[in-house]
Design goal:
Helix content: 55-70%
Mean pLDDT: 89
Distance between the termini: 26 Å
Largest sheet: none
Number of strands: 0
Shape: globular
Number of domains: 1
Number of helices: 7
Length: about 230
């Protein structure tokens, strides 16, 4: 089982990396052809929560694959906590995309369809299944949920503070928001709508985080933390 999941993790990591690079390459070619700003495109590209979560997925799956091949028994507590965070972010990515963004038309020729599905559906689904079924997971303390919530809070603040200064790499128009529901200029009720979506996403992240931590403690029977030991 360990070898099988090690191979599967390596394969999904490579597929996810290929999806990221395929979309980045297409975006760079389109912006270059239009005479736009390539540095601006790269900065905007890696400002998407989806891209950051998928980059983290590649890293976690690569480390996890090595751990499954190289050792026996449970994973280190720090890795389980990191893995839990990335599973939460990917689950949130999948839920938010399919609830809020699935029916928004994508610009033809600028979005790579198969890459889009890998980043928003395939990789999130695999990370959840890997968390449920792969060996090595250790029980986590409930306080890890607040640690998990740290990165999305920083990302939201970064996005809202940067957006008025960011620009579309081709047109140069400001502001630039990675997701339309975060843009108060295009949202039905301005900042009220933006605040609603931020609270909604925060609720999804917290619920997903609690679920992920709960699974680490309860799935496949009761697994108690050893006395005096802290899994982060």
């Amino acid at each position: 089982m360990r070898i099988g999941f090690g191979v599967l993790r390596a394969a999904v990591a490579l597929l996810t990396l290929a999806a990221i690079l395929a979309q980045l390459g297409t975006s760079l070619r389109n912006v270059a052809a239009a005479g736009g700003s390539l540095p601006g495109l790269v900065l905007n590209f890696f400002s998407f929560f989806t891209i950051e979560s998928n980059v983290a997925t590649v890293v976690v799956l690569a480390i996890g694959s090595v751990l499954l091949f190289a050792r026996r028994g449970d994973d280190p507590g720090w890795f389980t906590a990191l893995r839990a965070a990335v599973v939460t972010y990917m689950l949130t990515t999948g839920v938010v995309y399919n609830l809020l963004l699935r029916n928004i038309p994508l610009p033809q020729g600028t979005t790579v369809p198969w890459s889009n599905e890998v980043l928003h559906v395939v990789a999130p689904a695999y990370m959840v299944l890997d968390w449920l079924l792969a060996p090595g997971r250790t029980p986590l303390r409930r306080r890890v949920v607040w640690w998990i919530a740290g990165f999305p809070i920083v990302w939201a603040l970064y996005t809202l503070l940067r957006a008025p200064l960011a620009a579309d790499p081709v047109s140069g128009r400001q502001p630039w928001y990675p997701y339309p529901f975060l843009n108060p200029q295009t949202s039905a009720n301005g900042y009220l709508s933006v605040a609603f979506y931020i609270v909604l996403i925060a609720a999804v992240i917290l619920c997903a985080g609690y679920g992920v931590v709960w699974v680490s403690r309860r799935w496949r029977g009761e697994r108690r933390l050893p006395a005096g030991e802290s899994a982060v």
